[in-house]
């Protein structure tokens, strides 16, 4: 067994499951979130994300100390909720 495979084998199954879940649902910073929501050519400004956090209008986020992070799954849910058939539709 190589040294790397030995250390991988020693990881607790719960830690391994958590690492796999995090790999499937990566965390994004403000800049990456802006690009994900608005696109590369017109990202959502950080100031807009901050305003949305203050007013509760934006996607769900994590706050760890001073760090703000957005889960990919929460960004996709936010985008899904924003889909409309016409401009006359209201938000539920």
Overall description:
By secondary structure, the chain is mostly helical. The chain has a domain at 24-81. The protein is built from 5 helices and 3 strands, in the order H-H-E-H-H-E-E-H. Strands 1-3-2 form a 3-stranded antiparallel beta sheet. The radius of gyration is 18 Å and the shape is elongated.
Give average pLDDT, whole number: 86
The major pleated sheet works out as: 3 strands, antiparallel
- Kindly name the structural category: mainly alpha
Enumerate the spans where pLDDT stays under 50 for 5 or more consecutive residues: none
Secondary-structure element order, N to C: HHEHHEEH
Q: Beta-strand level of the residues, as a percent range?
A: 5-15%
Q: What's the overall geometry? A: elongated
Estimated helix fraction: 40-55%
Number of strands: 3
**Rg over alpha carbons:** 18 Å
Distance between the termini: 57 Å
What is the number of helices?
5
The largest beta-sheet arranges its strands as 1-3-2
Summarize the structure.
This protein has five helices and three strands.
Question: How are the elements arranged and paired?
Answer:
Blueprint: H1 3-9, H2 13-24, E1 27-28, H3 30-38, H4 46-55, E2 62-64, E3 67-71, H5 72-81
Antiparallel strand pairs: 1-3, 2-3
What key phrases describe this protein's structure?
single chain, 92 residues, mainly alpha, three-stranded antiparallel beta sheet, 11% strand, elongated
């Amino acid at each position: 067994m190589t040294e790397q495979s030995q250390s991988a084998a020693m990881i607790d199954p719960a830690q391994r499951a958590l690492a796999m879940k995090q790999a499937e649902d990566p965390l994004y910073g403000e800049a990456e979130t802006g690009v994900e929501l608005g696109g590369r050519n017109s990202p959502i400004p950080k100031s807009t994300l901050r305003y949305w956090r203050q007013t509760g209008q934006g996607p769900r986020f994590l706050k760890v100390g001073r760090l703000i992070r957005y889960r990919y799954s929460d960004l996709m849910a936010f985008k899904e909720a924003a889909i409309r058939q016409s401009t006359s539709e209201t938000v539920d």
